[in-house]
Write a structure and sequence with these properties.
mainly beta; Methylamine Dehydrogenase, Chain H; 2 domains; four-stranded antiparallel beta sheet
């Protein structure tokens, strides 16, 4: 369930659309940053610094520097672990991190030094058994997502545990207007905005959802499910409405066979980029009905 970190380093001759769509990319190799890291997530500030969650810690890219060797740095946890999620809070200068066995934050300094503070170990029932897949800021609180619970760390440094429904899990979490939507699969959907409450019953079938993208219309979103397809709908007053399927059965089959893992719009919203586990990255026309013919190219 980790977030997909997509680097489109080489496009080749597979794409048959305008070159204006292609991103400007610079490829860095292990010769640049000095280690064979597995990248899991990334966040950046407004000063050119990017933080990458890796299989051993946080790799820091400090932007282009005149001095060779000064471009890269690393922050290691007291107990080295894979970094699954990151959130940079510029108001407190904290880099929140979720790992395979803990969650907490690095307190950053102006001199690129950092001290790590564990929050997971503050729990009375703390056990090294949870993985923190996402981190979001909701109002003034930081929300850590695991499949077993949401951990809410407020501005008074209190930690609240919101457990998943009995017999269920919090499969995925998505930011929407005024809160967070949580998919609990067979247990339905939940909404968090200071309190956790179930979303009203809808016609959406239980399925793994990997993206919820806002649409220009007020309270409108596009949901991307692995097996049941793509839907447009409205979410307001804690309920779903105006649900409309916008993918064909054949396209749904492609999503399922490819194992959808994420989706996003291009900047002009004319394309949809699909991340999959089996078939790489696919780029499709953003049409009223997604068909296999909508796919312009596949990058593997």
């Amino acid at each position: 369930m980790r977030s997909c970190l997509l680097f489109l380093f080489a496009i080749g001759n597979f794409c048959l659309f305008s070159q204006s769509f292609l991103p400007v990319c610079k490829n860095f190799s292990t010769e640049d940053y000095g280690d064979d890291a597995e990248f899991r997530c990334a966040v950046s500030d407004n000063k050119g610094t990017t933080y990458f969650g890796t299989n051993y810690g946080v790799l820091i890219y400090k932007g282009e520097k005149k001095t060779i060797g000064k471009n890269w740095g690393v922050m290691i946890l007291p107990e080295p672990d894979v970094i699954l999620s990151l959130y940079l809070d510029t108001t407190t200068n904290r880099l929140y991190a979720g790992t395979g066995h803990d969650f907490g934050y690095f307190q950053l300094s102006a001199y690129n030094e950092a001290e790590y503070f564990s929050l997971g170990k503050k729990l009375d029932s703390y056990k090294e058994s949870f993985e923190t897949w996402h981190i979001y800021k909701q109002n003034s609180s930081i929300v850590f997502h695991t499949i077993a619970a949401l951990f809410v760390y407020d501005e008074k440094e209190r930690l609240t545990v919101l457990k998943s429904p009995q017999g269920g899990i919090f499969h995925n979490v998505f930011p929407v207007e005024n809160g967070l939507l949580i998919n609990a699969l067979d247990k339905g959907w939940f909404f968090y905005n200071g309190a956790l409450q179930p979303v009203g019953v809808s016609d959406l079938q239980p399925d793994k959802c990997y993206s919820v993208l806002p649409l220009p219309e007020k309270n409108s979103y596009q949901f991307f499910f692995r097996n049941t397809g793509v839907f447009k709908l409205q979410f307001s007053e804690n309920k779903f409405s105006n649900i409309k399927k916008v993918s064909s059965d054949a396209f749904d089959q492609w999503l399922s066979q490819s194992q959808l893992y994420g989706a996003g719009f291009s900047a002009d919203r004319e394309k949809i980029i699909f991340a999959t586990l089996i078939n790489g990255v696919a780029i499709a026309e953003n049409s009223n009905l997604l068909e296999p013919a909508s796919i312009l190219c596949i990058l593997v």
